[in-house]
Amino acid sequence: MLAHPTLDKLNALGLAGMAKAFSELVANGEAEHLSHAEWLGLLLEREWSSRYDRKLAARLRFAKLRHQAIPEDVDYRSERGLDRALFMKLLGGDWINAHDNLAICGPSGVGKSWLACALGHKACRDDRSVLYQRVPRLFAQLALARGDGRYARLQRTLGHVQLLVLDDWGLEPLNEQARHDFLEILEDRYGRRSTIITSQLPVSAWHSVIGDPTYADAILDRLVHNAHRIELSGDSLRRNLPRKA
User: Fold this and answer.
1) Pair type for strands 130-134 and 101-105
2) CA 115, CA 121: separation in Å to the nearest integer?
3) How many Å apart are CA 65 and CA 113, to the nearest integer?
4) Using CB atoms within 10 A as the burial measure, which of 15, 66, 135, 169 is most buried?
5) pLDDT on residue 30
6) What percentage of residues in the chain have a pLDDT greater than 90?
């Protein structure tokens, strides 16, 4: 078998996964017993897997998720009020297809951000674009972008990403500019994209955080009325983490 010319052609065509699988099969004596169809099937499977892994890695780099959280590591045993059936349903992603939102509320340390990142990771696996942002830092970025000409581009990114994760919402009241920016983001996304928002405050307290009643009504109408809710409780899970020496 002319292995080297075949490898060169596979690499020239950008079929790196196939090329690697081909090299391994040639080096494996048992591969001689495979049929042509089995050879082709193995090569195609490796190429598909290689492309999927590269695409997933690119999506995760873009998402910049705060935690390396995956669905398989979710702790359903801790006493924090996490409904396993609901979370498993959310992992299925139908709510993202329906362009619904998700609010995760609860005291500090109960895993709100971690759960949001696990859902974000699953969305990346499902070939969806995801972006994580801490709300206080996001408003600061928008203020800087307004001054250096990046504002419109940043707003487009926030509006178009399929799943936007907004973490630490409600840590401080919004000023006039932040209210305007937040409404613009939600207006671009409403009915078209999905948003996860985490907060230490219950949804009932969000109106006062926004401040201006007119803006508050408009923002909450776009954010909450079609939102699934996870309401957590209990002690901080950080207390159970081992202390570093």
Assistant:
1) unpaired
2) 10
3) 9
4) 169
5) 64
6) 64
